[in-house]
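Summary for the steering committee. The consortium agreed at its last meeting that each partner would contribute one worked example illustrating the joint modelling workflow. Our contribution is presented below. We chose a case with several input lines so that the handling of multiple components could be demonstrated. No manual editing was applied between input and output; the record is shown as generated.
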Amino acid sequence: MRLVNRLENIFSFDFFNNELVFQQESKLILQPEGSIIEEGISSFLVKNNNLITNNTEQIKLYFSDKSINLEGTFRLANGFLVDEFYFNIGKVNKERKTYVINLESGEINDFPSKPYYPHQILKKDKAFIFSQKIEFYNPFSGEVFWNKDISELLKTTNTEIYGKPQIINNKLFFFLFDSSHQTDERITLCLDVETKEVLWESKKFGGWLTTFEDKIYAIKDKQVQILNPETFEVTNLDLQEQLLVLDKKIHKPEDQMIWQIPFSFSSSTYVIKDNHLYFTQEKNSTVGIIDLKTKELLWHTDIEINSGDIIPIITDIKVHGTRLYILDSSNTLHIFEKDKII
Amino acid sequence: MKSLFKIYKSFVIVFFLLFASHIFANQPCWFKELLKDLAKPNVSQEFKTFFKNAPQENYDAYKILHYANKTKLRYNIDALNTVRRLRSSDEFVNFVQGLQIPNIKNIDDFLAKAATWYNKSSGGKGYVAVLKNMEDFVSTLNKSNVQCDNCVYLFNRFIVNDIPTGVNRQACYWLMEDVAANPNLVKNKKIAVEHPVTGLDGTTQRVDLKVGSSPGINLEYKWLSSNAPLGKDTFIREFVKRDMHSINSLDEVQWRIKWNTNQTNKLTKNQVVNWIENLDFQPTTNLNSAKDKMMRLFQSYGRKKDPNLTILDYDDLITFLKNNDDWFSKIFPNI
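What follows is the complete predicted structure of the assembly.
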């Protein structure tokens, strides 16, 4: 990989109409022309090639040559894009309401969520709450299809869900652990979305779950776990040997010793594409690519991060076309180009 | 008759010492010192008994403390017993020697050099307490099947001058004490004393101990034994800019703080809420990013108890923090 560009003061980035779009300070800029789409934004996101921006006063959706403004206090992280509908909860004149925007017609409806605003939405009228119990319900009518107490699924002092549950083909996958950390009890479960039946469980597979293409991944330390959600087959890739080269040692004269810095994957900031793992390092600056079929470490580099007194980490990674994009905690976007077939 | 016997006894002792000093004239200086110590009138009976028909290990314990050049310590029967016990503990010896502490040749060298700095900012803990703490820590790691990365740092702190103040040594003592008291926390896990990261501004940041992974827990150890409270700057640098920035869930961070004896410097929830409410640092872009991350983390945490919680802005976050206590006791447990 070859570094082709480095952009500064970038707070977030994504791809819209196959082009790089990024927030540089409060401007939303579309590459390659560098055209300013909007100014004064506080955040943005792209979902299913729909562009949504946010500032303290409104949310704005761009679609099909039109845009819709919704005035009020919103956070993009609370929004869902399901089929042709965009859901978000906002505060307008101190009143909280759920808004549903039909992206085809542009129609906006508001309604009070019953009994509460969803934590995840499957279809327009089918949603989930993930709390001490998992509840599958209709947020419009309040009708509860089913619920399940998570303490029944893992008996610990303080059972909680870790990370975001994954939904694939009407199967709900989630990871439970003992949040008191007084035991090492942990389990990944799969429930049938329609019947709440436990279809599968594993104490060996688990962690921060992420879906790429048609598989669920959990990565940590120097290990990659891959779950086939159809067959429940788990593949464990132990990459100790291959990643030994990423372990470091540093001498700190003030500590009068040599520190061992064993490499560990970031469990949440990575991408899998075409059987290649584009990884970042937990609380550190190494990035690289591993071929998951051959377990070969294809490329790696250390990103120079100058984030002052903010801990230097990689905050985002994306792959688009032949390019790899890395955003760091100093708000610098590093763009790498494949210089050979990887 | 009694006084005649006393004179006779004194004569025998003096004769014995003269004889011994003649016999042992070519012996090492530690042995000569031992003989002198044994002859001192104020030395305890326990001390004398320690060497009566004693095995070689007892003499070795004295030798180590003599080399440590701590005059009072070598008379201390607890110190002598502790050194003797640790030298004969395969578990302790193998662990400490396996650490490969810089400039430490063997266990005897470690036990001697550990006597140099033990009482400098270890919360007033004595040599025996420091070693006992290490012994318990090592025992917990072994019994609980724990692998520890960079544990050498914890032990090395007690044999080097912890410039400038010795606060790291104190935190290391507390870390080892806490791990030994909470074996379930570390059982069958990998723990890592994390290396320090020096920022461009010269500040050093690191999490003291990371336990397990995905989800792991990052433990920050502080022992504020003086009256000084935790400062706002430290809180912002280590909690907001480090911890909040690098975790996925609030379950992954905990500050384990030991306060002064009467707990006058104890951190309160109101203080923390006030710092978060009035959060301000440059550049504002990083400030906004930090605020956004906190809203996300606290919403996710709060929803585990209250599914209806939705934090839409910073005011909502502050309201949540003010109206709830469990987040505070979770992150800052009452030690």
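The two ends of chain B are 63 Å apart (CA to CA). Chain B touches chain A through 57 residues (CB under 8 Å).
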